[in-house]
Specification:
It is built from one helix and 24 strands. The model has no long low-confidence stretch (mean pLDDT 91). By secondary structure, the protein is mostly beta strands.
Length: 275
């Protein structure tokens, strides 16, 4: 069984992805015209999630305490796909689900405190120093977060009631604005393309791809699959790549967003508790 997960377009004919199997450890691969090239084995990580932009990969990796066996950390690794050089961002931290901005100068990540509370932090990509620790007055649990632009990000959050939503985050003051209604449907893996945020969400017994427009907050069902599909990314030609669950592991699938048959979803329908 082999898993191909978290595809990212390097160009229209080059794809970055995470690959693992029961025989080989998790590693980054570049897929060019159907041919695989191993980039690097990942450092020991807590999950397969990573983010990519403009030649830079960021992901969270496990770090043990050199003195205390029952204490561990999660640090950010920054990998250049062209030079294959990797460096560590932070030390003795608890950072998860990082993303890097368009300029490659800043990283946003979820910081988890020992008491279980968490918030978003903006880090200098060169030094690892905290630029700003954003307040979290609503006590949301942040998951995957993506930059919209230098001033805003989108994140999948869970509130204290256990409901999830996509929210827009002001990177200056931490204020949040709900893009979707809160509901018990599990959602995550946002991807920003222009005015559209694509994401995975449970609906009618399967994880499907949805989209929400930042300008109007209109919600659309993009796919109507039976088995779960995850981690949507879209290139300049409107081609969407996803990780599709199968009996042989996660496989990559391509969807043309222009002909995907988008269906508008009402607020009440979207937030309905699944059966």
């Amino acid at each position: 069984m082999v898993d191909y997960q978290y595809p990212a377009y390097i160009s229209n004919d080059s794809i970055l992805l995470s690959k693992r199997s029961y025989k080989e450890p998790s590693a980054f691969y570049i897929l060019i015209n159907g041919k695989e090239e191993k980039l690097r084995i990942k450092d020991l990580n807590l999950d397969e999630y990573y983010a990519y932009r403009n030649g830079k990969i960021v992901y969270a990796a496990y770090q043990s305490d050199p003195r205390w066996g029952n204490r561990d950390y999660s640090v950010i690794k920054l990998l250049d796909i062209y030079t294959k050089e990797q460096k560590q961002i932070g030390f003795r931290s608890k950072y998860f689900s990082p993303d890097i901005n368009e300029a490659g100068t800043e990283i946003i990540a979820v910081s988890v405190n020992p008491d279980g509370n968490n918030n978003l932090v903006r880090l200098d990509a060169a030094s690892g120093k905290i630029i700003r620790s954003l307040p979290n007055p609503n006590n949301y649990f942040f998951t995957q977060t993506k930059y919209i632009n230098p001033n805003a990000a989108v994140s999948a959050v869970r509130n204290p009631e256990g409901k999830m939503a996509m929210v827009k985050v002001d990177l200056a003051n931490g204020e949040t604005e709900a893009l979707t209604p809160f509901g018990f449907n599990v959602m995550g893996y946002p991807f920003v393309k222009g005015d559209t945020v694509f994401f995975s969400c449970m609906n009618n017994h399967a994880d499907k791809v949805f989209a929400v427009l930042l300008s109007s907050k209109e919600i659309f069902s993009v796919t109507d699959n039976v088995n779960g599909i995850y981690h949507p990314v879209v290139n300049e030609s409107g081609q969407m790549l996803v990780s599709a669950f199968s009996a042989e592991g996660y496989r990559l699938a391509k969807i043309n967003t222009a002909s995907a048959g988008w269906v508008g979803v009402s607020v009440s329908e979207f937030s309905t508790t699944p059966d």
